[in-house]
Amino acid sequence: MNEIARLAGVSRGTVDRVIHNRGNVKPEIQARIQQIIKETGFTPNPAATALRRLSNGFHLGILLPSLHNPFYLDVKEGICSAETQYSKYGVNITLVELQELTPQEQYSAIDRLLNQDIDGLIVPGIDTPEMIAYIDSIAAGMPVVTYNSDLPNSKRLCFIGQHHLQAGRTAGNLLCNSIRRPGVVVPLISYENILAHTQRVEGLRSVLHNAPMEVTMLPALHTAESDEQAYQVVHKLLQTRKDVSCIYVAGGGQVGAADALADSGRGQDVVMICYDLLPRTIEHLKSGVVNFTIGQQPFLQGYLPIAILFDYLAFGKRPNGKFLYTSIDIRIRENADFDGLSTISGTVQI
Question: Are 275 and 153 members of one domain?
């Protein structure tokens, strides 16, 4: 590689990017390097490359939204499990908890991680043009994986999480089969720029025409991932509108929303659909306040990004696609506590 770099008049790092197809090389320079490789008959030794990388170890930076949202406790469990497994191979993880899932806080947290010389970055996506441009600038020098909510128009390596449009359509069809009366569907999301939440709303809206009675969807109300705020939003909504036929919690705050519905006494009149298998949500599911909830395997969303970045950094192995989807796990009262088999990184766990 040193000889190829000398002949091409570039750095060894540039040669390495061309050989391992990491991009960020001008087309004319890439063509010159590839021609020299062809003329010299150079072939990289995968084992030697992996051993060299493993000997240096890897430092991964991860952003985790506030643990006040119980969903992310399960994500963190997946992160800790992967950290235990891969620490023996020199993987070191720095975890930064976000108090709010906002662009400003994410910019600040990523900057702190970049100052610690990380080799890879794992983030929940915040879908703004500025954030996409920022992630693209980072992805030019290191792999970035998004989880839970994606930045599909960015140059991230891959996304791990639910197919949110499909999950929204699933929720919509469940609603069409269980709606009790004509009226309005009220979607709740955490923030406008979280693609996971807006896609879930879009997915449900796309199938509402299948409802057996007239149902319309109102503009989304915001919960800021807060059960307290969700409670106040739903409490006020149910006091002021008698035509609510469904509350659809497409983001955080599902426990607070269900508490407000239960306290209103309208739980037998209003259908509620939400996401995630939080302990309090399961309680509401059993009591009948929540009609359906949809799980999305948060453990895998914490575990798999680390496994994928390890394979990429150590062996140059790319993931099997740009989108790695977790399950759409429908729960009703009858299977609220079901905990079957799941495949995690090639092993079966109970």
Answer: no
